[in-house]
């Protein structure tokens, strides 16, 4: 049983961090924070426009500042963006005050879910499959090393995944009050 004041979802694009996270947060009575959505609220624009105006580096700087702020809180389910784990500072902050769940998904399933997606600038190129495979190779080991729990979300409906995760978390995560 790992104690932590927040629950954190990590994993690749299309794993369901946002959709499963929203449902699971409601079931567990946690405040739902989606990092990308909060950045969009703050900036008044979309993730693709942030990438366009400030580059990926600008987006990552905003993401890091947001994670530092959000992880000071408690009683939250924090859905990260797929690249949030790249920065050591983010990994440290997520770990310090979060029980971390890695949502795993296969590239074919990502392709199915994201075929018509226009909101993810990293998938804007012509070959989505090659891009997703390269990202999986680079980031898969980082997700695995950071996680307290890995959960295979492949082929599961959002509600089913949320049900199963809720049951697993009962024996794995102890929600604590932070100092
Ligand atoms: N378990 C699932 N079953 C079916 N569709 C899903 C599932 N999880 C996510 N999706 C769909 O895939 C897309 C990406 O999901 P999202 O929750 O935004 O993933 P992430 O935040 O991990 O990138 C959305 O259109 C969502 O409705
Ligand atoms: O994998 C990534 O680097 C990104 C994933 C996106 O979030 P989701 O994982 O929720 O799609 C979003 O943060 C941005 O487009 C970059
Ligand atoms: Mg998301």
TrEMBL record:
ATP binds at residues 14-19, 120. One of its GO terms (cellular component) is cytosol. GO terms for biological process: amino acid biosynthetic process; aromatic amino acid family biosynthetic process; chorismate biosynthetic process. Substrate binds at residues 36, 60, 82, 139. The keyword Coiled coil does not apply. Keywords: Amino-acid biosynthesis, Aromatic amino acid biosynthesis, ATP-binding, Cytoplasm, Kinase, Magnesium, Metal-binding, Nucleotide-binding, Transferase. Mg(2+) binds at residue 18. GO terms for molecular function: ATP binding; magnesium ion binding; shikimate kinase activity. Its EC number is 2.7.1.71. It catalyses: shikimate + ATP = 3-phosphoshikimate + ADP + H(+). Monomer. HAMAP family: Shikimate_kinase. This is Shikimate kinase. The lineage of its organism: Bacteria, Pseudomonadati, Pseudomonadota, Gammaproteobacteria, Lysobacterales.
